[in-house]
Amino acid sequence: MYIAHTIDDLRRHLSAFQSPAFVPTMGNLHAGHIDLIRQAKPLGNVTVASIFVNRLQFLPHEDFDTYPRTWDADCAQLEAAGCDVLFAPNEKELYPEPQTYKVHPSAALADILEGHFRPGFFVGVATVVMKLLTCVQPRFAVFGKKDYQQLMVIRGMVKQFALNTEIMGSETYRAESGLALSSRNGYLSADERTEAMQLSLALKTMAAALKAGSHDIAAIEDQALHTLTTRGWQPDYMTVRCQADLLPPTLKPGAPLEPLVLLAAAKLGSTRLIDNLEINP
Ligand code: PAF
User: Are 82 and 94 in contact (CB under 8 A)?
Assistant: First the structure.
């Protein structure tokens, strides 16, 4: 695996390849990331990953400083998965001066849900992804559906800026318990890890109510919030939204369900977890 720490070196190395397939990450890799690499491999003629912990997408009270940096283990996993090139710039390389030009995604999409609870998060994500895409110039880029709203923001950005990159969404990689894999799962104690599966269970319960014909979305959401709160969680949201725009649906009695997505964000102890579940009629 070729490791490039500078944009110049990356560009020099990639100039020989027509169609890179790219997986951006913040490191601390787990099986979910490696699954993204496996999906990227057949798409392009060179597989590129990046590791960059992006300060711009962390709020001041969040875990930028303590976000796990696991360089040696990350490199070993990428090598083993057959990644060809790793782009690992430091902050000075990617942000040599304060990043005053930023990508501001549509507020209708980026200021709700995650954007409401983490103001500025999607500006930080869109800005770094734009910059990484400009550096790598991939034909394909693979993102996990676990970060559902992030994937939608990136798709919108790529479409509106006419970037020559096809964005592929990959199904969420889960532990056997149903827990969606996330770098932040590493913060959970053993007991919390067992409890953490309740988040995906709560989403399944919401989906079952909708599929059984309940149209009382407020009651379905309240029940899920209540279940988690009673178990000691601090939920930010447990909500039913349209896949098309993440707005609340209007369910008409007797009408077929439109494609929906159930989205969850909740704190367990001091660890904030997110998850989601698509419902396709
Ligand atoms: O999903 C992530 O790991 C990050 O938000 C991303 C896309 C690598 C941008 O920093």
Answer: no
pTM score over 0.85: yes
Q: pLDDT tens digits, residue range 154-203?
A: 999 999 999 999 999 999 999 999 999 999 999 999 999 999 999 999 99
Query: Shortest CA distance to 186 belongs to which of 61, 39, 73, 79?
Result: 73
Cα separation of 197 and 42, whole Å? Answer: 32
Domain ends where: 114, 146, 170? 170
Radius of gyration over alpha carbons of the chain, in Å? 19
Say yes or no: CB of residue 25 within 6 Å of ligand 1. yes
Residues 78, 163: one domain? yes
Nearest CA to ligand 1 atom 3: 25
Report whether residue 147 contacts ligand 1, using a CB cutoff of 6 Å. yes
Cβ(256)–Cβ(210) under 8 Å?
A: no
Catalytic residue among 33, 116, 215, 226, which? Answer: 33
13 is catalytic: no
Give residue 241 CA to ligand 1 midpoint distance, Å: 23
Q: Does the beta carbon of 114 lie inside 6 Å of ligand 1?
A: no
